[in-house]
Amino acid sequence: MLNRILSRFASVLYVQIWENRIKVTDVSNNESFDDLPIVVIQTAENGAKSITGIGKKASQVLRPNEVAVNPFSHPRVLLSDFYVGEKLLQHAFKQLSKIKSLRPRPRVIVHPMEKTEGGLTMIENRAFRELAMGAGAIEVKLYTGNPLSVATFDFDKIKDESGFTQAAPQSDSSASNLVVFAFYLVVIFLAFWHFGN
In angstroms, rounded to a whole number, what is the distance separating the alpha carbons of residues 55 and 143? Predict the structure, then answer.
């Protein structure tokens, strides 16, 4: 119930994925993150791995202990590295976020732009859905048709290709969702009080 209410305040992000490009557009203001889907991973002497850069610029100058990974590059399928893909989406979502501490989790349309001949398998459906959930989405729909127009975008009218919409589980984030919900209630109350006087 709380997630449903919060999703009404959430931004809508349209994620388009190609093998050599990722574009995430905030539908409300048409701002986008558009880059090469590369994550640079550094391996320390003790074997620990860390992300040191994302995108085309980060991949152009690699140190000897770094490797550039494209999570959407594989001969047969579009998603080849779930963990790296999730980190890439998290980065894109943060780049488009205006309020860093009290941002509601976004509603997301994931649109694989290639390697969809014959339709996506249930495994691919689940992988793309969980990729967006892990990156911070509150609700995800999977779409494989013609590119959507941001000007006429309506999240509620877009049909989920897999036939169902999965809302994010509440257990891991109910406290933060409650804080965001309380924040919006206070803002609404203050607005009514201000205009009422």
Answer: 24
